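2024-03-11 09:14:02 DEBUG pipeline.ingest accepted 1 chain
2024-03-11 09:14:02 DEBUG pipeline.ingest length=152
2024-03-11 09:14:03 DEBUG pipeline.predict start
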Amino acid sequence: MAMSAGVTRSNTGIDNTVWNILGQIYVPKQLSERSMSWHATLPVGTFVPPHIHPTQDEFIYVLEGQFDLLLDGKAETAEPGDLVRLPMGIPHGIFNKTDSTIKCLFWVSPTRRLHDLFWALHNLGPTPNPADVVAISAQHEVDFLPPPPEGA
């Protein structure tokens, strides 16, 4: 699929798609074989546990709010105007530990199976079984890491 020229309007996504991914709202803005982007809204207390994209580079441009991040085992933060770079193969987790919503623009390159993964996770409903999320993600080239040992 080649990228088409055009404008994806504010508050809309490709084909009017809006995904609810584990309580976060993702609105796809661009999709091609080489890259995919989506606007994300992360309510207070939501997060994506540490995971790896073995076949994609991922980026986050922060528009509103503050991320707490775990990047290759190190704690970081990102605020409006910051660009978070997540190279393929590097473990990372993103967390909203603040009292306000985070809004940002994500993108990955290449797209690989991420678009299909978001459809699969969206279709699991608002309270999916975590084991199902991990298994489906692995089938779509996103590998969640096991939780750290107690007390670590």
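2024-03-11 09:14:41 DEBUG pipeline.report The longest strand covers residues 24-31.
2024-03-11 09:14:41 DEBUG pipeline.predict end
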